[in-house]
Amino acid sequence: MSGRRSVLWRAAVLLRPAWLRLFAGALAAAAASGCAVALMATSAWLIARAAQHPPVLTLMVAIVSVRAFGIGRGLLRYVERLVSHDAAFAALGDVRVRVYRKLERLAPAGLPAWRRGDLLTRLVTDVDDMQDLALRGLLPIASAALVFLATLGLAVALLPSAALVLAGALAVAGIATPWLWVRASRTVEDGVAGERAERTATVVELLDASTDLLACGAADQWLSRVDDLESRVALRVLRSARLAGAGVGIAILAVAAAVWGTLVVAVPVVHQGSLAGPALAVLVLTPLALTELVQALPVAAQELQRVRGSAARVLAVLDSPDPVHEPAHVRPLAAPAAAAPHIRVTGLQVNWPGRTQAALEAIDLDLPPGRRVAIVGASGAGKSTLLAALLRFVDPSGGNITIDGTDVRTLDGDDVRSLMALCDQDAYLFDSTIAENVRLARAEATDSEIRDVLRRARLDHWIDELPRGIHTRVGEHGALISGGQRQRIALARALLADRPVLLLDEPTAGLDEPTAAALIVDLLAAGTGRTTVLVTHRLADLGAVDEILVLDEGRVVNRGAARDVINQVEGRHVVTSDA
């Protein structure tokens, strides 16, 4: 239980910037509900007193009060919604920014701990749920507590025995019922967030692999899995709704019992002449005005339980250790970002977060300005890990990487990356034009600059044949163009960034042999004059590089001049661990 309270407390701390406004919203909510109770009490007194035919002036204060409380209830409810929702949305935006910044620090080394759809659920749905901590959880409870105390104070002033009856009913409706609901629904609510994330992750994976699944005839199996997850989520939600409905019913019965209990203890007092008839009406009817508040409490307990599950998932992201530790005192780069740096890798060892086995061991690499090196190896050999270390996406666990003699661990990660342009094997293209996808590298680039880098990426002839040229749309993730054209657009984007170091990560993955061969030649030609690191599983067409490193299980098993290595290693395509 302490862990649960800790999660809710930490979630509340995340909303700290909005605490003052949320407190104002709680006061407005209490005032609105108080007006509803006061309206019922005043109306009861007015009707009962009017039945005694007193002078009309005796009723004027009550008549005006009824109007004031009626207007005040609606007005204060509007103020409460305006203030509390504005505060909750502002706090929600702050939490979402925190999570996004954390994901930025975790990427890419720390992200494999979660599935893509799971991360999407944490960033969107789970963060959205956290606004309900205040709006549907704490605010209703706080406002109800204030109104309950005020109502009990009125009952004590009129008849202490009736106040005891009302206090017992409120204890059942406001404390015992929500507590029992939490105990009964804990397992139901705890599983909702996890199964909802599982459903989203499965749907995302289904959409990503839809083409392959349809081709292999496995789509129906995945659709059945999604249906099963949807049914499980719906069943949990239904169980939770039933429990909440039962809680609301018990709370309403407790209020009804308070009405009958008040009659039992108050009627004899009226007969004795110790209590006036209008006061009896106030005592009997006032608990009815609390019905709306008491039936909101089991729902508030439900929201807190649900928010706890979502908050735990959000906090798990925020608590994740950063794969890269930025120095407390950042050293500036020895040369401006436009200057070609001298990069040295010495005895490098890299361990991915959460893994004990090293992904790279004892790697040495010298990258003076303009040098072109190919890193070759089978899948899982550690090629992309080396690029991640150069980009400072993961810290070395042994050895070091220096830029102009300065250890990268003493530099700001963004400064290190400002020297490098990455052309990834699965570079994302947005459903926009060729020009806009290239312009992502430099927003102020002109059309002529974009045409120039497209020419250097050997796309100029293809662009000239398009009816709209560089303003042709590429479709979602480049669906309207070929794989080779998509990779060349990614190369043009990297060239437009105009960084002195060019990193190419498996640029020919998924391409046919002729296209891959032509692309390798063009990539190396486009990188002329830049320090270039080409990661590939092919040995073919690497004669233009200065050095080849062959990796196997994180270690260098062969290295040397391009021709020497190509002649030594059997096969010219995929390098295997047996090479």
- What's the number of domains? 2
Overall, the morphology is: elongated
Number of continuous helical runs: 18
- Would you tell me the overall average pLDDT? 83
Kindly provide the radius of gyration, computed on alpha-carbon positions and rounded to a whole number of angstroms: 34 Å
The total of beta strands comes to 10
Series of H and E elements: HHHHHHHHHHEEEHEEHEHHHHEHEEEH
**Biggest beta sheet summary:** 6 strands, mixed
CATH architecture of the largest domain: Up-down Bundle
CATH topology category name of the largest domain? ABC transporter transmembrane region fold
Q: Any low-confidence stretches, pLDDT <50, length ≥5? A: 571-579
Main sheet: strand order = 6-7-8-3-9-10
Beta-strand percentage?
Answer: 5-15%
CATH superfamily of the largest domain: ABC transporter type 1, transmembrane domain
Return the structural class: alpha/beta
End-to-end distance: 57 Å
Key attributes of the depicted protein:
single chain, 579 residues, Rossmann fold
Description:
The chain is of the alpha/beta class and 579 residues long. The protein folds into two domains: 2-318, ABC transporter type 1, transmembrane domain (ABC transporter transmembrane region fold), CATH 1.20.1560.10; 343-568, Rossmann fold, CATH 3.40.50. The chain has 18 helices and ten strands. It has helices at 2-14, 19-50, 56-106, 116-129, 132-158, 160-208, 210-216, 219-271, 277-289, 291-318, 383-390, 413-417, 434-439, 447-456, 460-465, 483-497, 513-526, 562-568, and strands spanning 343-350, 360-367, 372-376, 398-403, 406-407, 420-423, 501-505, 531-536, 547-552, 555-560. The strands form two sheets. Strands 6-7-8-3-9-10 form a six-stranded mixed sheet, sandwiched between helices. The longest helix is centred in the middle third of the chain and has 53 residues, at 219-271. It is elongated, with a radius of gyration of 34 Å. The protein starts with a helix and ends in an 11-residue tail after the last helix.
